[in-house]
C-alpha cells in the first residue's frame, strides 16, 4: 500500500437529546474525521472528538496539528499490515508532553489502520496480534456487553428503560449539585433495582470536602465506582480522598497521557482508569494504557465521548471484542443518541447492551459519503 492523500474534515453531529454533565450541556458534537486514501483507491476513516476541557484541543487545533503530520505521510508505503501498525505506532502526539494532541492523533491513526486493514484484509479486532508487547491483554470475544449512561438530571423513565431492557450496569452523570446528586442517585437506584451495578461520574464537579461527604452517602446506596470526583487541578488530593472514603475511584479527565497514568499509579490516586480512544490518542496508545493499568493491578473501563459517530463506535468495538478484563464498556449508542450517522451499518447495542464483533476488514463498517458530506463544515485535502 502507498498513501496518496489525506483528507481532514470538521463535522457537526446533531444529537437527539441534550446530554448534560457537570462540565457542559451538549446538543451538537464537534468532531474531526480523517480519511486516508491509498493509491489503489482504498479509503480508511478515523475520528477524533476534541474536547477543550479534557485535552485542550479544538477542531481548529486539530487541523493545525494534522496538516504537516498528514503531509509527511504522503507517498509512504507499507508491504503489509504489520508495517502499517508500526507506522501508526510512530505517529506523534506533538512537541508538548503536557498538552498531547490526542483527538487529532487518534483520528489519523484509526484512518491509517482502517485503510491498511481494508487493503490487506485484516479486521481491526486482530490489531493486538501485531503488538507482541501487549499480548497479555488478548482476549477475543464474539459478543460484548455495553452498559447504560444516564445524563445528569435525566428523568426516571431512562432508568426504567435500562432495567426493562436488561442492562447489568448503568453510569449516572453527577457533579452539578452535591446534595442533589445524592437524591438523584437515590431515585435512580430505586428504579434500577438492587441487582444493577450502579456507578457515578462527577466530571470533576465536587470540591474535596463535598466529595468526602457525598461519597460516604453513596456507599450506602451501593455505588461501585465514583469517576473523576475532583477537578484535574486537584488530582493530587485523590490519595487523601481515597483514605477517607471506601468507594473506589476511577480517573477520566486526569488520565490523558502515559505520564498521567504513571503519576496516578505512583501516587495511588485511583482504583481504575477510564480509557477513551479519542481522549487517549488512538487504539495503540489506549492499549498501552490498559497494559499499564493491568501491570499495576488497576481496573479499566473502555469509555466513549457522547457524539461519537459509527466510526469511533466501530473502533471501540474492535478493542472491546479483542481485549480481556474490561470492567465496563461504554459506547455504540449511535441510534439512540445521533440524529444522523455516517456509516451504512447499525452498530448500536441491542437488548441488555449486547453487541457482536464486527468481522469485516479494517473497522468493518462502510462510511456513506453523502451523510459525511451533509455533516461536514470544513474540508482540507492534503495531496
How would you characterize the overall build of this protein?
It is a single chain. The protein has 383 residues and is an alpha/beta fold. The chain folds into 2 domains: 3-121 and 367-382, Enolase-like, N-terminal domain (Enolase-like, domain 1, 2-Layer Sandwich); 132-356, Alpha-Beta Barrel (TIM Barrel). It contains 13 helices and 14 strands. The protein has helices spanning 52-55, 59-73, 81-89, 102-120, 156-164, 178-192, 208-219, 238-244, 258-267, 283-295, 310-320, 334-337, 369-375, and strands at residues 3-20, 25-38, 43-48, 143-145, 148-150, 169-173, 197-201, 223-227, 249-251, 272-275, 299-302, 326-329, 354-356, 376-382. The strands form 3 sheets. An 8-stranded parallel sheet has the order 5-6-7-8-9-10-11-12, covered by helices on one side. The chain has a 4-stranded antiparallel sheet with strand order 3-2-1-14, sandwiched between helices. A two-stranded antiparallel ribbon has the order 4-13. The longest helix is centred in the N-terminal third of the chain and has 19 residues, at 102-120. The two termini are 16 Å apart.
Provide a brief overview of the structure:
The protein is an alpha/beta fold and 383 residues long. The protein is built from 13 helices and 14 strands.
**What's the name of the CATH homologous superfamily of the largest domain?**
Enolase-like C-terminal domain
Strand order of the largest sheet: 5-6-7-8-9-10-11-12
What's the shape? globular
Helix-strand sequence:
EEEHHHHEEHEHEHEHEHEHEHEHEHE
What is the end-to-end distance? 16 Å
Question: Mind summarizing the main beta sheet?
Answer: 8 strands, parallel
From the 3D structure, determine the CATH topology of the largest domain: TIM Barrel
Task: Kindly state the percentage of residues in helix.
Answer: 25-40%
CATH architecture of the largest domain: Alpha-Beta Barrel
Number of strands: 14
Radius of gyration: 20 Å
Approximately how much beta-strand content do the residues carry? 15-25%
Low-confidence stretches: none
Helix- and strand-based class? alpha/beta
Number of helices: 13
CATH class of the largest domain: Alpha Beta
